[in-house]
Amino acid sequence: MRLTQDVKQFVHVQGALRLLLAMVLYGMGTGILAPMNAIYMHDHIGLSKGQVTVVYSVSLLLNTVVTMSVGLVSDRMKRKKGLPIAASVLCMAGLLLYMQARDFAGTLVAVSVALAPSGLIMGQLFAMARNRFAIHAADIQEMALVWLRAGFSVGFFGGLLMGANLFLLFGFHGVLVGNLAGYAGLFVMLLLYSEVTKAEAGTAASPAIARGEPFSIWMLAALLLLFCADAIRGLYLPLVVNGLFGKPQVASYLWSAQAVFELLLMTVTGYWAVKYGSKPVMITGGIMALAAYIVYACGSPLAMFFIVQPLYSYFVSILYGVAMGVVQRMFIRRTGFGSSLYVALTQAASLIGYILPTIIHGVSPLIFILPMILVAGSLAVMSYQLYQSRRIKQHGDQHLLF
């Protein structure tokens, strides 16, 4: 079976398991805090909806600037490992400040310090991974990156469960300490990892380059719309669920259900993208997301929120697996920039996604009308792109016949 053979090859690549564990630890730290963060600012510190939006927006803007700035120069660096190591240290310092924040100004500074450098972690980890697999396992390179992203989801799932229980046992302080521990574990794993340089990877890069993706500003725009929609859900679903049902921990359980299916589907959608193409798979994911947003917007019973989680997991598994590969392959010769661009794209989308819902008064299920519109627009762009590519291919085949 191909999957079994690919997994065995992945496991036997030197350093692959350390990269995987680093992703798991990073995901765990992120998952512990993610569903509780907006609630912590709103309920514990006492920030308004607008102030929460400002905190997220400023920190994400700084994050995007730092990620892209470093991404532009990282390909000139002989070694990249120092970047995520430094970023993890700064993130831990920011979390320590966050624990002491008592007002809007203190929260803004703390969250900015904690989030601004975090984009370097994911982007540079993937850049280092692409270099390593270019040498040791070029034929499974794309699936290896999907499995590393799945490792992040495993950690995120564990972090969600851990975060909900830490909240019940120790309150918000326990959640923040758990997030800090995730970054500390990541820091240790990075210190232990032995990096493959770009020069070393270059000697074995030709198989990977052959699978490059044509650059398309329209595809990047379509992906941006999808990321914006997901960002709106990521920030406002916990607030909407808390407002509807009055239980902050329910958000963590919802994310846990999503993460389980996301993990199961990420490998499947990766192989489907290889077999059927990235665009058709991403279009089906967008349709699944629309169904979930309709349920959210209607303020449905809690059971319906859980029922649509597998559908949304299918969408997320594509968004953070298949779509990631599409962006990185557009810049196959510049691994650092391609990986950073993907992360920056998600960050820019988050920034836009956090600001857009402010046009709707209060925290209401009607907020999810916005991601419905965004996904519909993305589906229109991708469907047109798919039609054009098939039309060009068809004409090309006809020319070959004559």
Structure characterization notes:
With 402 residues, the protein is an all-alpha fold. The chain is 84% helix and 0% strand. The protein is built from 16 helices and no strands. Helix 4 crosses helix 7 and helix 14 crosses helix 15 (335-355). Mean pLDDT is 83; it is low at 205-210 and 398-402.
Task: Provide the descriptors you would attach to this structure in a database record.
mainly alpha, 16 helices, 402 residues, 0% strand
Quick gist of this model?
It contains 16 helices and no strands. The chain has helices at residues 2-12, 16-45, 49-74, 82-100, 104-115, 119-136, 141-192, 198-202, 206-209, 217-245, 249-276, 278-297, 302-307, 309-330, 335-355, 369-401. The model is unreliable at 205-210 and 398-402 (pLDDT under 50).
Largest sheet: none
Number of DSSP E strands? 0
Choose one word for the global shape: globular
End-to-end CA span: 40 Å
The whole-angstrom Rg is 21 Å
Global structural class: mainly alpha
